[in-house]
Amino acid sequence: MTHHKLTLPKKICPICQRSFAWRKKWEKNWASVKYCSVRCAQNRGKA
Q1: What Pfam families would the database entry show (predicted)?
Q2: Residue 47: exposed, middle, or buried by beta-carbon count in 10 A (0-12, 13-18, 19+)?
Q3: Which positions ≥6 away from 11 have C-beta within 8 Å?
Q4: Higher pLDDT, 46 or 47
Q5: I need a labelling partner for 26 at 20 to 30 A (CA). Which of 4, 32, 41, 46 fits?
């Protein structure tokens, strides 16, 4: 099964306000993913 980037689920990062799409490495915990990157996750207390 192939995915097209336009059909992947997306979320908005609460830190940088950028949209980010589903990734294979987040397959098992997509519901708990909140941040687009490690950098944003580390800066969560500063925003």
Answers
A1: DUF2256
A2: exposed
A3: 19, 20, 33, 34, 36
A4: 46
A5: 46
